[in-house]
Amino acid sequence: MPRARRFRRRRLPVLGLLAKGFVLLGGLWLAGFAIFLAVILTATPPNPMPHAGGIVALTGGDDRVSAALALLADRDAPLLLISGAGRGTYLGDFTADDAAAATRYASAITLGHMAGTTHGNALETANWVRAHGIRSLIVVTADYHMPRAMQEMRQALPAITLIAAPVRPPAMRNLFSLPTLRMLAGEYSKYLVVRSGLRRFAARLITQD
To answer: CA nearest 149: which of 174, 115, 177?
Structure first.
């Protein structure tokens, strides 16, 4: 038997196994993605909201700061950290309504300027929590971002009680649009990276929220 033919016969079973492996992984990813969608679409803040030692709002999307300021105004917690606000950002740099609320509660609000990623948010929050002796924390971010944010927060704050307060952003109002599905698929992939402990090896994938 010619050598080239024997090589092709040996190669075909290997290619078949690889193809089956990719199909299996793709099926598992799709099944997990469906569960991910179900979780974020049914996620709502607790009602009533438990009182906590602090609130953290993770910047990067619409309505997050507004929701956190509303919780502060309702006295669901005495302190608020706005994490990832960006260097040179001040309380008055929000919308007009938020700026008024932020000014009223300025003494209770800390702006975090160091975080540029969700992992950075968790580290910045951990430092703030330790500095204020906080034992329970309300986490405010977009509903689609909440699973990854909570995973990062649990790793950085293992002894702290975390309360998820998801916000439904405008992008989620048209769930089946291509841009929204692409965003959600990317977010789910980032969540898998963090959940699997592979963040260090995929830093470029998860540098943005």
So the answer is: 115
Cα dist from 116 to 20, 33, 55, 80, 97, whole Å: 39, 26, 19, 18, 25
Quickly tell me which residue has 């609130």 as its tokens.
Answer: 55
Give the residues of the chain that fall short of pLDDT 50. Answer: 1, 7, 205
Instruction: Annotate 73-109 with DSSP letters as a single string.
Output: HTTS-S-EEEET--TT--GGGS-HHHHHHHHHTGGGE
150's tokens: 């909570």
- What pLDDT, on a 0 to 100 scale, did the predictor assign at position 2? 54
Range of the domain at 78: 54-171
Which position has the token pair 């010619």?
2
Per the structure, the count of domains in the chain is: 1
